[in-house]
Design a protein that fits this description.
The protein is mainly alpha-helical. 64% of the residues lie in helices and 0% in strands. The protein has eight helices and no strands. The longest helix is centred in the first third of the chain and has 22 residues.
């Protein structure tokens, strides 16, 4: 008889998938808790801020994991594998809709930058900043927009982005460089050096 219960919250993502494949529902619950919100945000950005469709995609993504946990190779990093699957789901959706030329997405409306304790002028400044940045990201072409969002909104490393998008790290760096350059050019008015 086991005296101590296994602490699933202390396990890595990869270990949780292994336990999930052995039928442990609690392992799935922990993975869902760790990634559901982030994946909803990811899908919402990619799917024109359509919250309902994003919810459907999160459901489908985790349903795939439940149905075929063995499709995950435990030698891989779970996070990058999950984003790769999610990214492929979005690509397949665009193929179905035949709207590839219209795939840029902006930031979520409530991006969490505002702080009510700030002065009203500073709040207005940050609101203007958010709106402008959203427009700038929407104007980027798809390849630059997606690396920018994965890097700065999903906080992924260069290596993780390369794995998710199935491109090499040099390509990620190049696309990020061009995305940063374009964003910086369009956001000059918010540079503190220009506000003196």
């Amino acid at each position: 008889m086991r005296l101590f219960k296994r602490d699933f919250s202390a396990l890595s993502d990869e270990e949780l998938v292994v336990w999930m494949s052995k039928g442990k529902k609690v392992a799935f619950d922990h993975l869902y808790e760790r990634y559901a919100a982030a994946m909803h945000y990811f899908f919402q950005q990619k799917l024109k801020k359509d919250k309902e469709k994003a919810e459907d995609f999160v459901h489908d993504l985790f349903a795939k994991l439940i149905q075929k946990p063995e499709s995950f190779d435990p030698e891989r990093v779970f996070k990058t594998w999950l984003y790769s699957v999610a990214n492929n789901m979005v690509k397949n959706e665009y193929k179905k809709m035949q709207v590839r030329s219209n795939t840029q997405n902006g930031l979520e409306d409530d991006y969490g930058i505002l702080d009510e304790s700030r002065g009203s002028l500073e709040i207005l400044h940050w609101q203007n900043f958010e709106e402008k940045l959203e427009g700038v990201i929407e104007d980027l072409d798809v390849k630059h927009s997606e690396v920018f969002q994965l890097r700065h909104l999903q906080e992924m490393s260069i290596k993780e982005i390369a794995e998710v998008l199935l491109i090499n790290e040099g390509t990620v760096k190049s696309r990020l460089f061009h995305a940063h350059k374009k964003v910086a050019e369009r956001m000059k008015e918010f540079d503190p050096k220009n506000r003196r």
